[in-house]
């Protein structure tokens, strides 16, 4: 069957299917020497405590004014930057992986790639290749769980989009080829991919991910017929034998039984999200409106049935005391797909849904160091990679400003008390969190001065602390000031004063003019050492 005929046939299936409802710090090389550590005190979980935010000054007249920690009523796009920095505190630079499960690592990588692509920010770009090199091994990301395999394949397609590295796309192709060869099965329900090499069940999530993976590969290979064939075959099976996958609320349940009936399991957010993304990828290959209509109908059914008071929840959330990493990521998988759909729909209801969830999370489910809990309605329970990456995927919907200009990037700096010759001030102005300025304790504090070469208009200062560079949260800078001057020697007028900070990234709005900018740390990490992954001026 030719490429065009495949989709003509598939369109016919849509029209007659009972499912169709028309409604409207480091790169890949060795670590730099210095007093860094990948050790994490305890398990990485944060205690249930009220949020502790830095005291931030917004001082056009160079007069410090503390902003109180009041509930927020409008979404700030910089919150996404704070969440990704905190997520990186789970990253282990020497291993090229995050501290969590194999599945959670794939989802975190996707979240990081989506952040990089959405914002144009490259401070964490080095992580992508480090993860690739450190974990590809001899199995090329192919293991026993086919949903995980497809998820990693999708991650590498997204990585390919960032820099065109053919190795990433080749890895995704190898994963899809292996799934087509070893996971596609006609002995049960006449088709579909199985869950694992030992579990022959046909799961909605796994089949939707495989469809998305194959279609996304096709969309990046001119003239391809092989991978679109895989996508159409699996999508067609989901339509023709997928009646049993949907419940009365038009949501996907988990799987088919051996006799091809609905297994009655809870409709997880991850399955709904994967199905939406599969429809979007096939739509890119053949822009029939049916694909978007299916994605839209499932999205609205999910928001209607999987939200309480407009806030997204998981079907089994009430039971989820100590849930596994996969469950903690489910909401993130859904909002990632919903965000992709919203790019096309630009629907006011979806935009409102995003805004309500972001505000609720920030005000009610956020713990210390900008960590986000599992229950988006709050209160904050504990922190881990999956919870953080899940929330990050939602907050990416708030990004409006891209490719922000760093006025201090690669400018001349002077810095005090370096921990080593390779950890001087230049590491804080090189545009990557792979390197840092590390300063030893001094009674007078540690200072870093940037020469902007001329008087510049400044609207924001940003500081990436230890956590953003893959170091423990306990080493985040506690107390610091940001000052400006007409001279590299001062005197300095403090525009920003922060006390008792715990965040891995802090952003400070100002409205001033200056040539010289100084970051002065009076209280570094818990060991007294200052670690600044990046100091930016915008």
Kindly list the characteristics that best describe this protein:
6-stranded antiparallel sheet, alpha+beta, single chain, Glycosyltransferase, disordered N terminus, 538 residues, 14 strands, 13 helices, 14% strand, 2 domains, Jelly Rolls, two-stranded antiparallel sheet, 37% helix
Compile the SSE list and pairings.
Blueprint: H1 3-16, H2 78-87, E1 91-92, E2 97-98, H3 102-119, H4 125-135, H5 146-163, H6 166-182, E3 202-203, H7 204-218, H8 226-240, E4 255-256, H9 269-285, H10 289-305, E5 307-308, E6 311-312, H11 325-345, H12 348-364, H13 385-395, E7 413-415, E8 437-439, E9 446-464, E10 479-485, E11 493-498, E12 505-523, E13 530-532, E14 534-537
Antiparallel strand pairs: 1-2, 3-4, 5-6, 7-9, 8-13, 9-12, 9-14, 10-11, 10-12
